[in-house]
Description:
alpha+beta; 7 helices; globular; 4-stranded antiparallel beta sheet
Amino acid sequence: MNDSIQIERRQVLRLFAVAGVSAGVATLSPPALAAKCETDGTPLQFVPKTAPDPNPLENELAKYPKCPYCGMDRKQYHHSRHLVHYQDDRVDATCSLHCAALSLALNLDRGPKAIYAADFGAKADPKPLVNVDAATYLIGSKLPGVMTKQSKVAFASKADAEAAKAEQGGELGDFDAALQAAYQSMAGDTMMIRKKRAEKKRHAAG
């Protein structure tokens, strides 16, 4: 991944963190555990540290079946899944851009080597991953979102993205535009998810 792109993304992430757009992320970092991570920037999902993985795309769904932030099955949500491969070869494999945004916000001092997203336009099942630097995102269409009210789906082919836009509406953008949209909707999405999970627990309790 280009160094200038990494620097720009770190600046954007720091801006959102300072502005409080990533509100709700702090609940993932209790002070007692955060102290252990002070010097190396290691977030909670890497405590204890997982083994570095220089080839994260190899048997990816078998190695990373669950999202570390919400616990959702990544195979079930193969069409929206993302994977962040950090420069130290740590891997955060998530169910969605929403949870990938959480990972990037928690890892401000750990630069991504590459970020991948499912190609929504692919016919294969599961949908293959594509480097987000080569992807076109459809943002805010009528397609259902995952962990968010505002859908943000990636396409390897810009032509496929344009065809989906013509049918489903929304706006086209690159990964950075989709990431900014994810942070801007983070507070509302977090409240929506909490409400849904609370209702599910009440129903389960009978």
